[in-house]
Design a protein that fits this description.
This protein is an alpha/beta fold and about 400 residues long. Helices cover about 35% and strands about 25% of the residues.
C-alpha cells in the first residue's frame, strides 16, 4: 500500500495495514514528520485514550470560556474532557508506531500524480532529490491534506473551494493560565470565524485567529496581531511573553468530499474533507478516517480485491457514522459565518443555559436528539425558539 502524506490520517492508516503484515510506504514531502505545524491541536481527551497517545503529549483542561463582544459564558467540567496536544510530538509518535509496525516512511518525497490504468489507481509518480520514479501499489491512500492532490488528479473528487484559514503564535507566557480553553467570536478579531487561546503546559500557549476565506477577505495574520495587542481585554495575561513559533494552515470548510473511494484509491483526513465545521476540528476525524481506511485496505488485500466496490466499504462506513452530523455542522457553520456582533451576544447568552456536557457535544458536531430533548423538557421557554431554528436547519439540510 502507498500512502501519500505523513499527517495523522495517513500515519494511522499505514500503522493499521503494516500491523496486518502488508507492505506499506508513506511519502511525506517535508523533511520531518510534524514540521511545520499547521494546526492548533485542541481536541477531546477521549481521542487521546482511544489512540493510546502518551499522556506527556497532551495537556488536559477542564474549563471552557466563550466570549462575544458583549457577553461571556464559562463552562466547568468535573474532569478534563478537552486537551491541547503537542502537535509535532503526536505526529512523530504516530510515525514511530507506523515504523514499528513495519511501514517505511520516506520524507523529502513529493507525490506528483497518481498512475491510472483504465480508470483504476495503480500507484503514484513520486519525486525525491530531483529524481522521479513510479511506485506501484494495489491500494493508494490520499492523505495530502487540503490540496487533495491525488484525489483530484484521479478524478475521485474536484477538490475544495471553501477553506478555513488559521494564523497562530506559539508563546512562552509565564503568567497565562493553563487550565482554560478560550474562544472569542465576533467581527473585530474573527469575522466568519473565531479567535482562541489554548494552553498546552509548561507556560506555553497558542494564540490564534481562524477565518473562512470564502466568507471574508480579511487577513488572519493582521487580525491575529490586533487580537494579541488587545488580548488583556479578555483577562489573558501575556506579560513577559515571547513568541517561539508561528503557525499557518488551511482546512477544507465545505464538508465531506462528494466521493471518498474509487478503484485503487481512498481519501482520508483533510483530503476527504472530514473536518467538523462548528469549530473547525480536523485531527480527531482524520485519525478515525485513517483507521477506517486502513481496516478496509486490510480486508481488501486479504481478499485480493481492491476495486471501487470493495474500497467503497470505507466510504459507506464513514458516511453512516459521521455523515449526518457533518452535514448539520456545515449548516451551523454557514449560519455562524454571517452573524453580527449583536447576534453573537444573543447566542452566547443562550449558550449559558446549556449544560457543559451538551455544549461539548455540539462543539464536536455531535448532535444527539435525545440529549437535546432531555434538556429541553425542563425548559419550555426555549421550545418555540428551538423549534424554529431546528426547522430552518432541517430545511437547509434537505436542500444541501
Amino acid at each position: 500500500m502507498l500512502v501519500a502524506g505523513g499527517g495523522p490520517a495517513g500515519l494511522v492508516a499505514a500503522q493499521n495495514v503494516a500491523a496486518a503484515g502488508y507492505s506499506v510506504v508513506v511519502f511525506e514531502r517535508e523533511p520531518e514528520i510534524g514540521v511545520p505545524v499547521h494546526t492548533s491541536g485542541a481536541l477531546s481527551t477521549e481521542v487521546m485514550r482511544d489512540f493510546q497517545i502518551p499522556a506527556g503529549l497532551y495537556h488536559p483542561v477542564q474549563r471552557l470560556r466563550l466570549c462575544s463582544p458583549g457577553e461571556a459564558a464559562t463552562f466547568e467540567f468535573p474532569e478534563p474532557v478537552g486537551c491541547v496536544i503537542d502537535v509535532r510530538g503526536v505526529y512523530q509518535h504516530l510515525a514511530r508506531q507506523a515504523r514499528e509496525a513495519g511501514a517505511r516512511i520516506e520524507t523529502r518525497t513529493s507525490v506528483l500524480r497518481p498512475i491510472l490504468d483504465n480508470g483504476r489507481v495503480t500507484g503514484c509518480l513520486v519525486r525525491a532529490e530531483e529524481v522521479e520514479r513510479e511506485v506501484s501499489a494495489k491500494v493508494v491512500i490520499d492523505a495530502t491534506g487540503y490540496r487533495a492532490d491525488v484525489s483530484r488528479a484521479a478524478g475521485l473528487h474536484a477538490g475544495f473551494d471553501r477553506f478555513g484559514v488559521g494564523a497562530e503564535y506559539e508563546l512562552q507566557a509565564p503568567h497565562c493560565r493553563q487550565d482554560e480553553l478560550l474562544l472569542i467570536v465576533g467581527n473585530r478579531y474573527a469575522p466568519a470565524g473565531y479567535a482562541w487561546v489554548f494552553p498546552w503546559g509548561k507556560d506555553r500557549v497558542r494564540v490564534g485567529v481562524g477565518l473562512l476565506h470564502s466568507d471574508t477577505r480579511e487577513d488572519a495574520r493582521k487580525l491575529l496581531k490586533l487580537f494579541l495587542d488587545e488580548i488583556a481585554n479578555f483577562g489573558v495575561d501575556v506579560r513577559d511573553a515571547h513568541t517561539t513559533e508561528t503557525h499557518f494552515g488551511l482546512i477544507p470548510a465545505i464538508g465531506l468530499a462528494k466521493k471518498l473511494a474509487c478503484a485503487g484509491l481512498m481519501a482520508v483526513g483533510d483530503a476527504a474533507g472530514v473536518a467538523t465545521l462548528v469549530v473547525g476540528e480536523g485531527i480527531r476525524l482524520s485519525m478515525i478516517s485513517g483507521k477506517m481506511a486502513g481496516s478496509t485496505a486490510v480486508t481488501c488485500l486479504s481478499r485480493g480485491t481492491w476495486d471501487a466496490s470493495a474500497l467503497g466499504a470505507y466510504e459507506k462506513r464513514f458516511r453512516n457514522e459521521f455523515g449526518f452530523n457533518l452535514r448539520f455542522g456545515k449548516i451551523i457553520n454557514r449560519r455562524m459565518a454571517s452573524w453580527s456582533d449583536a447576534k453573537w451576544d444573543q447566542q452566547v447568552r443562550f449558550l449559558r443555559t446549556i449544560p457543559p456536557a451538551l455544549l461539548l457535544e455540539i462543539l464536536q458536531s455531535h448532535f444527539s436528539a435525545r440529549e437535546v430533548l432531555l434538556w429541553l423538557a425542563l425548559r419550555p421557554q426555549h421550545w418555540l425558539r428551538l423549534a424554529r431554528w431546528t426547522t430552518d436547519a432541517l430545511l437547509d439540510l434537505l436542500h444541501a
